Amino acid sequence: RRKAGMMPSLEDLLFYTIAEGQEKIPAHKFITALKSTGLRTGDPRLKECMDMLKVTLKSTSDGVMLDRHLFKKCVQSNIVLLTQAFRKKFVIPDFMPFAAHIDKLYEKAKNMSGGQVADYIPQLAKFSPDLWGVALCTVDGQRHTVGDTKVPLCLQSCVKPLKYAIAVHDHGTEYVHRFIGKEPSGLRFNKLFLDEDDKPHNPMVNAGAIVCTSLIKQKVSNAEKFDYVMNFLKAMSGNEYVGFSNATFQSERESGDRNFAIGYYLKEKKCFPEGTDMTSILDFYFQLCSIEVTCESASVMAATLANGGFCPITGERVLSPESVRDTLSLMHSCGMYDFSGQFAFHVGLPAKSGVSGCILLVVPNVMGIVCWSPPLDKLGNSVRGIQFCTDLVSLFNFHNYDNLRHFAKKLDPRREGGDQRFPPHRGLSSKSGGVRVGSLALLHALLRGKPVVVHYSMLPREPVTPNCCQQPSSDFTGTHDELEDQGFAPFALCPCNPTGLEVGVYLAVLLEVLCHLTGAPAAMRVFMVTLAEQHGTKPQEHQVVKSVINLLFAAYTGDVSALRRFALSSMDMEQRDYDSRTALHVAAAEGTYFAVSTHRAPVL
Asked: Is 372 helix (H, G, I), strand (E, B) or coil?
């Protein structure tokens, strides 16, 4: 038994969070809770935990249940990662709602028809036009897949940014761009055309990709070069599936007249490093195009680019920051064939498409996404993939130039509660004018069923104007936006109430009447918060206010899981509201006894 006054360990708190008051938990409950954070049981970082779990379950009488001590034994080797996951410290804190949105976008794109499967490479023409998969991996290793994500597909042109990244990683930007330009060509990807310096325009068109291929592991055999690139790609994918389609390679080589023409043109213009065997390089080029991945393994590669060159599921540094930066820059400007400008304008994210129907999409510092559907539009991009990417950025503020602070029309899954957007009710709020105060506004808020936050900023002692309560102080605006994003209904309260009563008494009387009309319980529907004694408020106080609100409301509703989560996140469980009520007071007053015992547990 833990001594009185000692705080539980992280392992204990994690157990309490999952067990919800029970003495034992079934192993599948832990696995389900783990998956809800976005982590997989097969994550390499959790190998010790999963191995120990298997061994431990074999030693139990029923092979299912874990008590606190057995649970601690299983998780202690990976407790830091697990604590981050359950504290919602990952880049997508509310992962399940986000995944549900991805599924809806997938279904919407699935219903699209049109496009044609590429047939100029015979092996590609064999794929069904009905195949459609989406896989994502965040920079914290959170995973989600939907559709045909385990079917092997050839990278084709999607390998171009990857081999460019390898070349820059090995040689540096300056050396690579002695041979290749950085500008969009404005021409078809397979044109025989060079820039004014007799260099390929960029590494995302065929001419540039062929030259880039010649820069990898010069003066060694193709076999050694191929193994080198394969090992790089396996490291980028966290050792997930990376294969090779010999049939596609043979098909590429037999139908590659245009690429041979480009190769000879490049040789004639002396575009290769000295001593390069052009025909050997073309063979290597066709081999790299024929590398196989799945949507799942390729999404980890994309996430490695999103994560600055670190593989998110192994933590291994694979690429230099310089190579990742340069690769994403060129993917943004040149990655989508002749649609690159349109894609940069509407989607605003680095991406690369291939004629296999694959789109490699990177949300820098957030996640990598791979979409795959063989039917292509007239520009060579996946029809369903383009639709999915467009819808993704319409829903979430992932566009590079979305304003993360003020653009309220989109969801921000990077913020906890960022999935909850409530449109302002007419006459209640506006970004420019603040919030009008009065019984009608509070009535609407109560009817919406959301807890109300009253921001009471004491104004200077001076005569007030008759309409001052329609012009809340400017310090409320930022707090209002933050609280509304969390699902509360925030209102400013001016001291010049028409009754002349002390403001707390006035509010209590008003609430009693309104709650009687709406049937809402008055006790905790409104939290009155004094943020400052003058106009100004301090940013750090905003977080304290939201913390108090969340804690007290969880105690009021008896939300044991939320209370355990708050304790796990090191929240001060003794925080008080304006009336000096703690969560323990509220829980006891409402008879939520499990909440009371949960609150007291950490200090027993």
From this structure: strand
Taking the C-alpha atoms of residue 269 and residue 281, their distance in angstroms, rounded to an integer, is: 16
Answer whether 123's CB lies under 8 Å from 374's CB.
no
pLDDT on residue 596: 57
Q: How far apart are CA 152 and CA 297, in angstroms?
A: 10
- In a 10 Å sphere around its CB, with 0-12 CB exposed, 13-18 middle and 19+ buried, how is residue 59 labelled? exposed
Query: What pLDDT is attached to residue 70?
Result: 92
Q: What is the pLDDT of residue 597?
A: 55
Which of 33-47, 407-421, 424-438, 552-566 has the weakest average pLDDT?
A: 424-438
Q: Phi and psi of 519, rounded to 5°?
A: 80, 10
Q: Using CA atoms, how far apart are residues 71 and 80, in angstroms rounded to an integer?
A: 15
3-state secondary structure 292-304: EECHHHHHHHHHH
Q: How confident is the model at residue 222 (pLDDT cuts 50, 70, 90)?
A: very high
CA distance 176 to 565: 50
CB 184 within 8 A of CB 250: no
d(CA 492, CA 509): 17
The neighbour count for residue 77, using CB atoms within 10 Å, is 15
Distances (CA, A) of 252 to 116, 124, 209, 330: 19, 10, 15, 25
How far, in whole angstroms, is CA 314 from its chain's centroid?
18
- At residue 590 the predicted structure's pLDDT band, cuts being 50, 70 and 90, is low
Phi then psi for residue 527, to 5 deg, are -115, 125
CB atoms within 10 A of CB 420: 16
Please give the Cα distance from 380 to 156 (Å, whole number). 12
What is d(CA 137, CA 500) in angstroms, rounded to the nearest whole number? 58
In this predicted structure, what is the pLDDT of residue 577?
A: 66
Amino acid at 335: G
